[in-house]
Amino acid sequence: MIAIALQLFKKTSVKIGIGVIGSILVIAAIAGIWWTQQPPPQPIQFPHVMHINLGVQCLYCHPGALRGPSPGLPTETKCWGCHQQITVRNSEINKLIDYVKAEKPIQWVPVAILPDFVYFSHRPHIAAGLNCENCHGEISQMTVARPQKMNMGWCLGCHRTRYANDPVMLTKLTDCENCHK
Amino acid sequence: MRERISRRDFLKVAGAGLAAGAVLTGCGPDSRYIKRTPYIHMPEYTYNGLSTYYATTCRECPAGCGLVVRTMQGRALKVEGNPFNPVNLGKTCSRGQASVQGLYNPDRLQQPFKQSRGGSNRQVMTWDEAVATVKTALTVSQPDEIAFLLGLTSDHLADLISEITSALGAPSPYRYGAFAMFEGRTTLAKAAEQLFGTAAIPYFDIGNADYVFSFGANFLGTYLSPVAYGREYAKFRKGNSTGQRGTLIQFESRLSQTAANADIWVPVIPGTEGLAALGLGRAVAENQGGTIPAAYQSIDLPKISQSTGVDQDTYQTLAKLFTEAKHPLAIPGEAALSVSNGFEAGQAILALNLLADNAGKPSGIFFTPAAVQAAGSSLPNTLQDIIGLVEAIKAGKIKTLFIHGVNPFFEFPDLLGFAQVAQKVTQIISFASFPDETALQADYVFPDHTGLESWGYQRTVTGADRASISGAQPVVVPFTNTKATADVLLAAVQAAGGNLAQTVPYKDVVEFIQHAIQDLLNQDGFYNAPDMTTFWAQWQQYGGWWAANPGLIPPNTAGSLVQTIRASEAQYDSGGGLYLFPFMNSPLSDGSSVNKPWLQETPDPTTTVMWNTWVEIHPDTADKLGVKDDDIVRIVSPYGEIEAAVYRYPAIRPDTVAIPFGQGHTAFGRYAEGRGANLSKLFGTRINAAGDLAVHGVYVKLEKTGKRHYLARMESRIGVYGKFQV
């Protein structure tokens, strides 16, 4: 089977064909990688920028970040607490009203998720005085949240820089078991 | 001709393949992102990413162990024991651990429906229609044409139904199931009544004993309250109270999980455990000197030795141990009780405790005080009662049969003919949560919540050191369109109106439970409260109620050894040369949990077999028959036959074959169906003097089939006991 494929491989027309297909694949691969960096479609185009400019604190809607591993997504009760008193200005708020009236959950798509084998808790990071935008980017400029680069090198880079002069903390925070329990 | 592929060509093909694979198989956002479904209204005391814990009660067996279930965002994740509950003090068994797989079982019945018997023509109903159906059934038929058949779990439901039936003037609910059948619970209680005047299941204080003589009691596996006894066994072994490591002596024809842990295993002939106890008692009485009590005067040790197949020297050695022990304890077990002479055997074994003078003392036997009195009898019914029910059905006297928590089409002996007589019932209403054999043969199925979604309570029959009652509360919102059976019945009662609704006035199951437990407000509990609202908050927090201090009831021993105990031989229905030794093991137990793959995958504690039924045969017997490991044999009793694969088991008497109960389901979902064989096909209906089924009551013969089935088992196939024979 492979032998026949290799025979064909030697013909010029086949080579050109494969070249074309190969180029398409390479372009598709590049497009695919670009695609992964795009924010996923969200049920509502939630404008973070507007809420932050109005003075709403991040922890108001994501209070879990203060207490534990997950900041949590706000419940509809929380959205509706304010929005039932606010004039409807655009179609996105109508979507919220529809969800609330139908008592259906809004299925958000979180963009900052870590793999299951990483133990991560927001709490010590908030306790260490980090702000949300240190890791999540300039949320105050975004509508829906956009994915940020969050890989192990990025985590370790920050741990190493912050504790370059504290050997005890540096050892603790660069230990494998710190995150891969 | 074979061409050689150059390295360069190989890399070209492989590279193209990899690139295509990488692009064409999900690098896109869909593979990276998942949707999250947040709460619409987040419950109080819930935090994102943090677990919420609820205390509840296990419903996998009637022991009533307390559980603490870890939940996250409305999903039950992990079950652990409730450290406060005096029954299990923080421990659980494998069945409790697996209860989450009942909650998430893909074969759960998800809504009420009616059907033709056998499962065809299913039509989904609404709960309003279901309630109306129950209401009609309760009101249109004459009261004595209604029968309730319940299992041993869900005591709150049995109490509620007892109230309803007494308001209607209908017969009390029947409570029966494989646990009552195999363990001879009523036999034990009636034997205790004979000696101590109290018809209740005794508590055996293993933890404070130094020598335990167990007569066929697999108390580390399934017997009565295995988690409590397992915990006490640990204390006994460590010698926490006696200062020395406890010694366990097990009389049993087959090496069970408990026998495997014993120091001395005495393989008596099946059905002679009671005789062995009398023989031992006689030898002990002789050792103690003085007058031989009436119970042992007519006992002839050489004869007993012959009947039980245990030589006299063994009796003398064991009697010496018993006499010299400071805190000996004798426990009658399921293999001694569910036999035709079980009533006498129970008395003989309990009487040993009188010789040891331990009744009501540490290391002895006690009765457990009831925290909340049962509306009816606290003991299960007997097979004799069930035969009465079957006769009534056969005579056409029962029009409506309600079934909850028991699977009679699977568990009851086939010979009873329940499946055939059920045709005579006008309507069968099942409250099964799973599509078991009984749900399949019902006209209406109104599925109950599973245990982790339910309110309820379970009395502690034995195992706790004080009066206690375990409370159940939902740990998650019910996943599917099921409804608590108690709520269905209460809604039907309210719809019926009149005297019935006035006598049973509760609006829902919670109100009923609060009514049932209100007397606890006046008792000295582990917590106390001035009113029900405060009490209820703590009831939910701690998962039940128990007395502030330990306290068990000492039995009344006056005149107990004066009466004689009949040394009767067990009767077996003939049909072959081998005793059939049916048993429940800890993962399969009564067969109601085998739809959980974790339990199917849990190896049997002694043979390590999984996912199937096997027949344990002594290698000598197997050689005589010419069967090897994994050969399928036909096991023929006078009443039926089944096929199972052979497991050559050196730890069983050569004249006995043992088969576990629980498999052989023809319905009950994807994990249970079509695997193994149902032992109840082999059973007779012989009953003992207490009215319980003689589970150990038939001889069988084995026939070769020429087929083989390789049993899945955890131990090496080469075998612990020699070379694996192919």
Summarize the structure in short.
With 181 residues, chain A is an all-alpha fold. Chain A has a domain at 48-150.
Describe this structure as you would to a colleague.
The complex is a heterodimer of chains A (181) and B (726). With 181 residues, chain A is mostly helical. Chain A is 55% helix and 0% strand. Chain B has 726 residues and is an alpha/beta fold. Chain B folds into 3 domains: 195 residues, Rossmann fold (3-Layer(aba) Sandwich), CATH 3.40.50.740; 187 residues, 3-Layer(aba) Sandwich (Dimethylsulfoxide Reductase, domain 2); 136 residues, Barwin-like endoglucanases, CATH 2.40.40.20. Helix content of chain B is 31%, strand content 17%. Chain B has a 7-stranded mixed β-sheet, sandwiched between helices. Chain B is globular, with a radius of gyration of 27 Å. The model of chain B has no long low-confidence stretch (mean pLDDT 91). At the A-B interface, helix 1 and helix 2 of A face helix 1 of B.
